[in-house]
Amino acid sequence: MTPLVFVHGFMGGSDQWQKQDTLGVGRDLIRVDLPGFGKNAHLPPVNSIADFANWVLSEITVERFDLLGHSMGGMIVQEMVRRAPERVERLILYGTGAVGVLPGRFEPIETSMHRAKDEGANATARRIAATWFLQREKAEPYPECAAIAEASTLPAILAGLEAMQNWSGVDHLPQIACPTLIVWGDSDRTYAWPQIEQLWQDIPTSNLAVIPNAAHAVHMERPRLFNQLIEGFLAHA
């Protein structure tokens, strides 16, 4: 089977995909850690979505792959398809959108920048990670997710926010030609429905899956349903 590449979102890391191990039956799973985050928190941070995309493409040694991007990672994978469409067989855009400035986000990016400077990296990681779950800090996966987010340094947090703030992929959506699945939790506090609808309407090859009773981290809140959707798409697209 075609390898599946996971690209995590802002303050994420490869360890957050452990509940997706079942997707590795018969295929290789390639779970990257972006520079400045997760296991690559020691690397210099990157402050543009384009540079993130180029970095991931340079790290993947297989020629062709399926590609899943979450949140900021969804922006990155859109840029990867733009730069190397011949390498991507199938695309999964999960909890993401086509613009970095997010109308309806739980707080504006500028506010996140100011609060990160005032509160510090660890407090910012815990506070933002809580918004990814329907039950916030009370969610069972929250401690694990917050611990991964806490690996992020303050420079990486600010660089990631800057990268999102300065990015738009709207004009490229009609050029995405590979089969595409859009996945969204209906209680996502970061990406509102109009951003999801734009992906669904503007990508000619897209299908949409809306997960009920889930927020921004569907893959950790409702992993069985999430995995079934991904497996079904990869098997039949």
From TrEMBL:
What protein am I looking at?
Answer: Alpha/beta hydrolase
Keyword list (alphabetical) reads:
Hydrolase
Which organism is this entry from? Roseovarius rhodophyticola
Residues covered by the AB hydrolase-1 domain: 3-223
- What SUPFAM superfamilies does the record point to? alpha/beta-Hydrolases
This entry's Gene Ontology molecular function terms read: hydrolase activity
Residue ranges annotated as coiled coil are none
